[in-house]
Specification:
The chain has six helices and 15 strands. It has a ten-stranded antiparallel beta sheet, with helices on both faces. The protein has a three-stranded mixed beta sheet with strand order 1-2-15. The protein has a two-stranded antiparallel sheet with strand order 5-6. The longest helix has 22 residues. The chain has 333 residues and is an alpha+beta fold.
Length: 333
């Protein structure tokens, strides 16, 4: 019997289509293959093909030269720009402002053929330290209210360049989907005086059916109301509303957990395209009792179509309990 499940944070409904239940081999998959490219602007020796770097972790050399391990640069074709003023204005019933913000690229490795799953744990940790440093710098700009960090891996996930990288976009507004999550978490806190994500962590750690892996600092789960097959959340065990406030021990453990979760996904789904999205609190807010930062991993093995666009419902053909079983059985790196 199909099930309707309600997300405990946003109140969003999903359909777990048990009668369509699909195992990993039932999905049409196009494995991501890194071909290599001599003219890749992210490769060492091509530093002048990108805008001047904002941050780098290096073994040798100076800025905008080879010798780096992780490098952050402005996006050459930014969605938003730092320069200028917001200039908010109304036009009848419409409202607009200038496209002020920031759009940056975090190049995760100098090795073109590497993927996040193949990097050494220390290298992955440095990627997260780069995220943190850029957030701390950008939040000084009081015009910027939300900073989203995300990774598109593979063409099906929206990547235009195959060299392993993530992106950061800083916005002068809090996005609608983020606000829905914040509002849902606040409603739960107002009613129960507890963080909904802390409640999820406690429940899942007891139940264990949807736990993919667990460590001292994190729980990786396939969420109860998963929108997509094999969707995985990585949630800190300890309450913290802002990713950039994470301690060193948490950051080290996060690198291991993310790398392990992506490797499991690669093994089970045969190197799928995927999106990784960091959910954190608005940067101009102080610590929030009701919100809890986390990471979402979404393999691109199914399509969003008319029903989803028309209703806001998602149809997931793989129950999260079964997805967790497959991912657990993939073992650890």
């Amino acid at each position: 019997m199909p099930e309707l499940r309600k997300d405990p944070v946003t109140g969003r409904w999903v359909i777990i289509a048990t009668e369509r239940a699909r195992r990993p081999m039932d999905f049409h998959r196009e494995p991501v293959k890194i071909q290599g490219a001599r003219l890749c602007p992210f490769c060492p020796g091509h530093e002048l093909k990108t805008p001047p770097e904002l941050l780098s972790f290096r073994d040798t050399g100076g800025a905008n030269a080879p010798g780096w391990r992780v490098r952050v640069v402005p996006n050459k074709f930014p969605a938003l720009r730092v320069e200028g003023q917001l200039d908010r204005e109304g036009e009848g019933l419409y409202y607009k402002m200038n496209g002020i913000g920031a759009h940056e690229v975090i190049v995760e490795s100098p090795v073109h053929e590497s993927t996040l799953a193949e990097l050494q744990e220390k290298n992955v940790e440095e990627v997260f330290w780069a995220f943190r440093e850029r957030i701390l710098d950008l939040r000084k700009d009081r015009r910027l209210r939300y900073i989203l960090i995300f990774k598109n891996h593979g063409e099906l996930a929206g990547a235009s360049l195959e060299h392993t990288h993530s992106q950061l976009i800083a916005l002068p507004v809090v996005p609608k989907r983020v606000q829905e999550e914040l509002d849902g978490a606040k409603r739960h806190f107002d009613y129960r005086e507890r963080c909904v994500f802390c409640d999820i962590v406690k429940h899942e750690a007891r139940d264990m059916r949807r736990v993919v892996l667990e460590t001292e600092h994190f729980l990786a789960i396939t969420p109860y109301a998963s929108r997509f097959a094999f969707e995985t959340w990585i949630v800190p065990r300890r309450h913290e509303s802002h990713f950039e406030n994470a301690e060193s021990s948490v950051m080290r453990n996060l690198a291991w957990v993310v790398r392990a979760a992506v490797r499991k996904m690669d093994r089970v789904l045969e190197w799928p395209a995927y999106n990784m999205v960091m959910h954190s609190s608005p940067v101009q807010e102080g610590p929030l009792e009701h919100y809890h930062w986390h990471i979402e991993l979404i393999p691109k093995i199914s399509k969003v179509a008319g029903f989803e666009w028309g209703t806001g419902f998602y149809i997931n053909p793989t129950p999260p309990e079964e997805a967790a079983d497959f991912l657990r059985e993939a073992g650890l790196p």
